[in-house]
């Protein structure tokens, strides 16, 4: 995609790329405010949250060569998440929470090679989340609360070593919590409430010194509570 040219060219390119979204031209501008942020002649951020967009997310939006942040949150976007056919090593932040998106996340989302922040909470996504995001080990924030995801947290969660925030509440996850969660030494917040997890909490959670928030209520957990959980609940 040719991103050279002035702000007028940028705006025309953006409206063409987001053809599936009912954009109000008066609600977005390029380079002159915080909506579209440019570094020289390169678009590096699209902050399109809470602008009452409807329609679908076109796959072309992931073709912007220098785009580091894409925020489409708090809109009325519907349909499924697009397939991403080409590798993208630039996008770091993707926020699509609070929309009307449905279906499963395609495994091609792993083509977002360096994605660090992903929030898809408050949609209607379904399917096996961890099958879709396998190998996205650079994630620091994974937020998918209030969807219809299902499945177990796999042992491979221990490979997401940079993860700081894990938000899985209000879905249909089940099974026992793997001990490999304790490999995530940077974890600060874990939200697992309102699922059907069973068994006991891994006792090794008390070794996670950075953990500040742990919410596991409204599951089918049993057994003793590690001391850190009691402290975090106070």
Describe this structure in words.
- The protein is mainly beta.
- The chain is 9% helix and 26% strand.
- The chain has three helices and 17 strands.
- The protein has helices at 7-17, 129-132, 227-233, and strands at 36-39, 42-47, 54-55, 69-71, 76-80, 93-95, 100-103, 117-119, 124-128, 141-143, 148-151, 165-167, 172-175, 189-191, 196-199, 213-215, 220-221.
- A nine-stranded mixed sheet has the order 1-2-4-6-8-10-12-14-16. Strands 3-5-7-9-11-13-15-17 form an eight-stranded parallel sheet.
- Strand 1 (36-39) and strand 2 (42-47) form a beta hairpin.
- It is globular.
- The chain starts with 6 loop residues before the first helix and ends with a helix.
- Residues 1-5 and 20-28 have low confidence and may be disordered.
* Overall spatial form: globular
Share in β-strands: 25-35%
Sheet having the most strands: 9 strands, mixed
Q: Could you list the spans in which at least 5 consecutive residues all have pLDDT below 50?
A: 1-5, 20-28
What proportion of the residues is helical, as a percent range? under 10%
Number of helices: 3
How many beta-strand segments?
17
From the alpha carbons, calculate the radius of gyration and give it in angstroms: 19 Å
Secondary-structure class = mainly beta
Give the CA-CA distance, first to last residue: 53 Å
Helix and strand pattern: HEEEEEEEEEHEEEEEEEEH
Strand order of the largest sheet: 1-2-4-6-8-10-12-14-16
Query: How would you state the average pLDDT, rounded?
Result: 86
Topology:
Elements: H1 7-17, E1 36-39, E2 42-47, E3 54-55, E4 69-71, E5 76-80, E6 93-95, E7 100-103, E8 117-119, E9 124-128, H2 129-132, E10 141-143, E11 148-151, E12 165-167, E13 172-175, E14 189-191, E15 196-199, E16 213-215, E17 220-221, H3 227-233
Parallel strand pairs: 2-4, 3-5, 4-6, 5-7, 6-8, 7-9, 8-10, 9-11, 10-12, 11-13, 12-14, 13-15, 14-16, 15-17
Antiparallel strand pairs: 1-2
């Amino acid at each position: 995609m040719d991103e050279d040219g002035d702000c007028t060219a940028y705006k025309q390119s953006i409206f063409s790329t987001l053809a599936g979204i009912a954009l109000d031209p008066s609600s977005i501008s390029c380079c002159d405010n915080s909506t579209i942020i440019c570094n020289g002649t390169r678009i590096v951020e699209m902050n399109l949250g809470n602008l009452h967009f409807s329609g679908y997310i076109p796959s072309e939006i992931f073709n912007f060569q220098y785009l580091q942040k894409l925020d489409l949150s708090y809109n009325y976007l519907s349909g499924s998440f697009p397939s991403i056919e080409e590798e993208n090593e630039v996008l770091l932040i993707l926020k699509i929470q609070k929309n009307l998106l449905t279906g499963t996340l395609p495994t091609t989302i792993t083509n977002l090679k360096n994605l660090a922040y992903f929030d898809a909470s408050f949609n209607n996504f379904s399917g096996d989340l961890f099958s879709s995001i396998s190998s996205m080990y650079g994630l620091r924030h994974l937020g998918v609360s209030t969807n219809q995801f299902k499945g177990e947290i796999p042992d491979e969660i221990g490979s997401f070593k940079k993860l700081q925030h894990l938000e899985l509440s209000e879905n249909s996850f089940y099974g026992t919590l793997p001990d490999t969660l304790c490999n995530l030494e940077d974890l600060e917040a874990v939200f697992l409430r309102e699922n059907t997890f069973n068994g006991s909490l891994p006792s090794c959670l008390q070794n996670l010194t950075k953990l500040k928030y742990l919410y596991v209520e409204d599951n089918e957990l049993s057994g003793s509570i590690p001391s850190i959980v009691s402290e975090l609940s106070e």
